[in-house]
Amino acid sequence: MFMTKIKFEVVELDVTDSRNEKNIADNIRNFFSFKKISSDDHCVINISLGGPELQSVWHILAANDLLPKNTQFIKTYDNKEETTKHFKSFTIKTVSTKLIADISSQLKFYPNTKSQKRKLVNKKIEKFLESGFSVLLLGERGTGKSSIIRGLIDEKKISVSGRLVEANCASFTDSQIAESELFGYKKGAFTGANINKTGLIKDAEQGVLFMDEIHHLDKSVQAKLMKAFQTDKHNNFKIRRVGDNEEIEVKNVKLVFATNRTIEELHEILLPDFYDRVVQYVVEIPPVRDTLEDLENDWKSIFKRLYPENNVEAPIDRELFQWLKTLPLEGNFRDLENIAKDYKIFLDFNESIRREICSEMKIPVSPLDYAKKCYELYHSNPVVSDKIEVKISDGIVDAGSIEKTFRQELNKWALQKFGSRKKAAKKLSVSEKTLNNWKNGA
């Protein structure tokens, strides 16, 4: 049906097979082309009419922008309780023309991404999280590993009946605290254990246990987790609370781990058997500098997240994006957030304060120059000298000891200069294992 301001028109299409989606689509496209409908015209389409094939075609055409941009979908519903009336009353409801995009985005880390690396993450995560096996998220600091998992749970993109339980392994100051927090404890197990505590693992039953920064786990805790995470055929396992003699069954927990260390570093940090349990499926989260196709959308989403109530629009400035693309952004989204905060606060200053601050900083009076200066002063890594100083202790005269000291200093300098072991190894044309050997004096 096509509506204008002056008339209502019923159109019969030459559809020869009502179950042939392509035949239906070709006829509809020909109709819109023949009518020469302007992209500004308003079309209201009742997609309740016809069978499921026709309804699918409407959504496919809308998803591919093959309908006028002002198209609106509606559905009509008869009042089934009016059994005696010849003409029943009915209800009209609007329907999203973006149904396919809405459904597709629920399966992805990064909706509407242009980056091939992020698209690959989307494909992996869709399969891995529903597999029942543990998933390891690898990524630099600030790549949003924890916020990604929270978003997947909040938006029901992971199918669980339980809840998300987060364990920040860096917060466990010793192995006893780690065990009591993860496994729980029985009343009287130790001084201060005045009640029974379930523990984070049991709390995650039927849900997701997200263990962030697993490289901080003590090896004694790794050993106990390794034993606890041995699942049966129903994906259940058993744990024992601190101070308890009986085991407790934990049902259907999805295990997600995260770290900013490399696989090579995890090999050295984790016990071999625990490493095997953690590294079942791996998703590498790309840094922001490797996904610059999405930089503008990332920038907009940061402003939306930082200032949700103020309806603040992200500043879109060509010079701004040119500058952002030159930055290493070692802090990834955290760096972008800091830049966004500095840019926004400058706009909130009155003119007098702006001039005073910029005069002190010796920069032009502009939000971009202010953000640049703040990034340089407070957020970027300090400049590392290109010189390596090696101090030789008195009494060391043999070449082997001097070479060992030099390699230790070279390892330290390279990590500071290039920001990560992986980059340092690449720049020096050695393996990451070799760099670590240098660190340990080998």
Brief description of this entry?
The chain is α/β, with parallel strands linked by helices. Helices cover 43% and strands 12% of the residues.
Number of strands: 12
Q: Output the radius of gyration.
A: 30 Å
CATH topology of the largest domain: Rossmann fold
**What fraction, in percent, of the residue positions are helical?**
40-55%
Question: Which blocks of ≥5 consecutive residues have pLDDT under 50?
Answer: 102-107
Class by SSE composition: alpha/beta
What's the CATH first level of the largest domain? Alpha Beta
Layout of strands and helices, then pairs:
Blueprint: E1 2-3, E2 8-9, H1 21-35, E3 42-46, H2 52-63, E4 70-78, E5 90-95, H3 99-105, H4 116-128, E6 135-138, H5 145-154, E7 164-168, H6 175-183, H7 200-203, E8 208-212, H8 219-228, E9 237-239, E10 248-250, E11 254-259, H9 263-269, H10 272-278, E12 281-284, H11 295-306, H12 318-324, H13 333-348, H14 351-361, H15 367-379, H16 399-418, H17 421-428, H18 432-439
Parallel strand pairs: 3-4, 6-11, 6-12, 7-8, 8-11
Antiparallel strand pairs: 1-2, 4-5, 9-10
Helix pairs in contact: 1-2, 11-13, 13-15, 16-17, 16-18
